[in-house]
Every structure is written in structure tokens, then in C-alpha cells.
Design brief:
- With 486 residues, the protein is mostly helical.
- 72% of the residues lie in helices and 0% in strands.
């Protein structure tokens, strides 16, 4: 029962959703299977949010629902299946209820099909007015929704009035919106592919990248600026973001940042977050390439995102684990330890529950490490039961650093060898990252052996090799070697 699909859905519900779902189950309009389904839900919701109590065993639940009767597994399976379907329907209901323009466009189509002329014209006018006020409205679906609105207008004109002039006007708008929609989505996909191919995921460029290479985007940009200046800033932002990551020149960043800060007010919250993340990604890549001064800029971007309330998802109250991790790593890199500790304390509750254990253990252990409380840091990491694939490398590398500080060289060498094999078999990371982690394990092992054998005269040669390499935690290795050379 604990591992069922039903429980997975219920765990995702907020406290308010858990309460509201009971009303949903209690409604005969949605629940046609009777009150036993409601009683079943009332029993299992007692164990929200974890749903890990032994009382959730099917036989125990059956005895509560049907006291004195012999256990029947088919009844319990049917109850679970029915409640699961209701939970999925409730999710659909919530999506439609908060559907924004998609819901409004469906209404418009319904008004047209039912020949509710006054309703259609009023709703169409409302949507036009809303779309024309672009402030905080733009998302990746904006131009597609405007295209759909014009398409409904054309169908309406043809069905009822055959208004040629209005049809022609809508047809002109359709062409404009479909071009913008296509270009914006292609550039968005292209940017995300560039980020993915150069960061953590392995893979190859696909048809989108090839298509964007063929298009003369500069000429397209000039044409759009001339033909549709009102919408051009949206295209320009997506275009400059893509071009900045494609060329990746130092002078591209201030230009893109200036453009982003100028036009960010057009976008909804989700896309304002995405824009700030793109600035973050640029800084991270520059930092990884050796330009350490970008760490300070990255920290300022993080503080700006927190100040603008862009980190926490409004819908579920959670923070993206990548954001949490990057904020910690950046603050640690520039020595903002007090700020980092305060951030962890204030925001660990915003992590998704299944990611919280490993992330907070690593973050708090990082604070302990910076305070030179190595034993405490190690104990926190050793308690982690479920290390997420994104934090497992962070956790293991931090443990290796701690073993060195504790002078537990035998454990350090054994752990490094195990870690190296893990990295070599990990295909979730891009090759550049596998090589970086593998290099750290190799250099770390060589460093530990030299220290353990007190062979310090070889350290300058090792330092020279590391300086020429691309390796994870390069600064840490060089600093620890420098300590011994002195």
C-alpha cells in the first residue's frame, strides 16, 4: 500500500489540497462508487504527508472498513484503484481550474460552437484587451494563445457573418503570431540544448540546432524589429540569450544582462525565474572555465532572485534543487559562510521532501567543514540514506575532503578508488563532467599517497599537472598542496 501509485499522488498534495480532495471524493458527481471510497480515504489521509505507517497495510485497513468480515483483497484493490482515479481526476480538475488562457480559449470555442454570439464577442474582446496588456503576461505559450484566439475569430466570422475585412485582419495576425511562436520556441529549445550539452547531461545536438544554424537569424531579427516593434523585445531576449550561449564571449554577458533587466517586466513569474537562471548559467560556465571573478556576479544574481521572490514555486512552495545547490556552492566559493548558514536555515523547508535529506545534509556538512568541524560534517553525510543523483557527487567529494582533514588516509584511498569506478560507470553526466570527477579522484589518490608516505618533494610536480588539467575541486587540491609545500 505504501508504495502504491495512489500514495505517490497523495504525497504530492498540499495540506489544502488534502482537505479539498475530501470534498471532491464526497461529491456524488465525481464519486459514483459510494461512501466506502470516502471512508477509505478518511482512513489513509490520517497518515499524511508521509503515508509510511504500518496501519496502511491492506489487511489492517480492511478490518477498519469492514469489521468482522473476512479479508478480501479484490475489494481493497478496487478501493485503491477507484481512489487513484479520483485523485488523478482531481489533478485534472485543478489544472483546468487554474488553466489561464487555455481555459478561456476553450470557453470561447464552446461559445462559438453553441452559437452564443453575445458571449463569444464579449469573451473575445476581454481576451484581446488582456493580451494587449503585455505586462507580466509573456510565457512560452503567449504567441500560440494569441494565434488560437485569432483562429477562433476567423471561424466565428465564417460561421456567422462572413466579414471579409475582419477575416483578413485576423489572418494577418495569425501569420505574425505563428512566426513569433515558432521562433521563440525554437530559440528556447536551442538554448536549453546548449545548456544541457555543456553542463550535466550527455547527448548530441539534434534537428533544432541544425535548423537554427541554417536560419539567417540576424536578418530575421531586423525584419521583426521593423514589422512588429511591439513584440520584438520578446524575440530579441530569446535570440540574444541563445546567441550568448552559442558564442559565449565575455562581452555577450553584460549585453544580455542589460537586455534581460530591461525587458524582464514583460514576463510572468516562471519566465522571470528562467531569465535569471540563464544569467546564472552564463556565470557558472565562465567560472568553471577559470574566470573566478564571475562567482561574485553569480552571488549577486542569486541575491536578486531571492529579493524578487523568484526562487520559491508559488504553486507547490518548493525550491528547485539546482537553485539551492548552486546558491550554496557559490556562497561557499566566495567565503560567504554566515550568509550561507542563514540561507540554509531559512530555506531547507522549501526543498522537495524526497530531495531534502541529501541536500540539507550536504549543505550543513559544508558549513561544518568550513568551520573545521570535520567529525560533525562526516556524521551528517554518513546518515544520508537516499543520495539524489545530483548530490551524490557533492556528498562523496566532500567526504573525501573530510577524510584528508581527519588524516584517515587508508579510508581516503579506498573511498577514492570506489568513487572513481562509480564515475566511470555513470552515464547520466556529460563526458566533460565525468572526466572532471574522474580526474579529481585520480589526483586526490596521488596526493593522499604522497602525504601518507611523506614524499613531499613530488608535490610541486603534482601541482603543475593539476594546474594544467580540468578537474573538479581544483582550487581545493592546489590549496592543500600549497599548504604542504610551504
Amino acid at each position: 500500500m505504501v508504495n502504491s501509485k495512489l500514495v505517490s499522488i497523495l504525497r504530492s498534495f498540499s495540506k489544502d489540497e488534502i482537505k479539498e480532495f475530501r470534498k471532491f471524493v464526497d461529491s456524488p458527481f465525481f464519486n459514483k462508487e459510494g461512501k466506502y471510497v470516502l471512508r477509505f480515504y478518511d482512513e489513509i489521509k490520517k497518515y499524511y504527508p508521509g503515508f509510511e505507517n504500518k496501519a496502511l497495510e491492506r489487511s489492517i485497513l480492511f478490518n477498519k472498513l469492514y469489521p468482522g468480515k473476512k479479508y478480501d483483497d479484490s475489494i481493497m484493490r478496487k478501493l485503491s484503484s477507484t481512489l487513484q482515479k479520483l485523485a488523478e481526476e482531481y489533478l485534472n480538475y485543478n489544472v483546468f481550474r487554474s488553466g489561464g488562457y487555455s481555459k478561456e480559449l476553450l470557453k470561447l470555442k464552446m461559445f462559438r460552437e453553441k452559437r452564443l454570439i453575445n458571449h463569444f464577442e464579449l469573451k473575445s474582446s476581454e481576451l484581446d484587451h488582456s493580451f494587449n496588456n503585455m505586462e507580466e503576461k509573456i510565457d512560452i505559450e503567449y504567441f500560440r494563445n494569441r494565434y488560437k484566439l485569432e483562429l477562433e475569430k476567423i471561424n466565428y466570422y465564417m460561421d456567422f457573418h462572413s466579414l471579409i475585412k475582419q477575416q483578413q485582419e485576423s489572418m494577418q495576425n495569425i501569420q505574425k503570431f505563428i512566426v513569433y511562436d515558432s521562433l521563440v520556441n525554437l530559440l528556447d529549445i536551442g538554448y536549453n540544448l546548449l545548456v544541457g550539452l555543456t553542463s550535466m547531461y550527455s547527448g548530441k545536438a539534434n534537428i533544432v540546432m541544425q535548423f537554427l544554424e541554417i536560419i539567417d537569424l540576424e536578418s530575421v531579427s531586423k525584419m521583426l524589429k521593423k514589422e512588429s516593434p511591439d513584440f520584438f523585445p520578446v524575440f530579441e531576449l530569446f535570440y540574444v540569450r541563445y546567441k550568448s550561449f552559442l558564442n559565449f564571449k565575455d562581452e555577450d554577458y553584460p549585453k544580455y544582462k542589460k537586455l534581460a533587466m530591461k525587458n524582464i517586466h514583460y514576463f510572468d513569474k516562471e519566465n522571470r525565474f528562467t531569465i535569471m537562471v540563464s544569467l546564472q548559467n552564463f556565470c557558472i560556465r565562465k567560472f568553471v572555465s577559470g574566470q573566478k571573478h564571475f562567482a561574485e556576479e553569480l552571488h549577486e544574481i542569486h541575491k536578486e532572485m531571492l529579493a524578487k521572490d523568484l526562487i520559491i514555486n508559488d504553486k507547490n512552495g518548493y525550491m528547485n534543487m539546482n537553485s539551492f545547490r548552486n546558491i550554496i556552492l557559490t556562497a561557499q566559493t566566495i567565503g560567504k559562510y554566515s550568509w550561507m548558514e542563514k540561507f540554509i536555515y531559512e530555506h531547507e523547508k522549501h526543498l522537495i521532501p524526497e530531495q531534502r535529506e541529501s541536500l540539507t545534509a550536504w549543505a550543513k556538512a559544508s558549513v561544518d567543514y568550513d568551520k573545521k568541524e570535520f567529525g560533525s560534517a562526516l556524521r551528517k553525510l554518513q546518515k544520508v540514506k537516499n543520495d539524489h543523483f545530483l548530490t551524490k557527487h557533492d556528498i562523496k567529494i566532500l567526504m573525501m575532503k573530510i577524510f584528508y582533514e581527519l588524516k584517515d588516509f587508508e579510508t581516503a584511498l579506498s573511498f577514492a578508488d570506489t568513487y572513481r569506478h562509480m564515475v566511470e560507470n555513470d552515464r547520466t553526466y556529460a563526458e566533460v563532467h565525468r572526466n572532471s570527477h574522474r580526474s579529481f579522484a585520480v589526483f586526490y589518490s596521488r596526493f593522499i599517497k604522497l602525504i601518507a608516505n611523506e614524499n613531499l618533494k613530488e608535490l610541486p610536480f603534482l601541482k603543475n599537472e593539476i594546474e594544467k588539467s580540468v578537474t573538479n575541486s581544483k582550487d581545493w587540491l592546489l590549496f592543500k598542496i600549497s599548504e604542504k609545500i610551504k
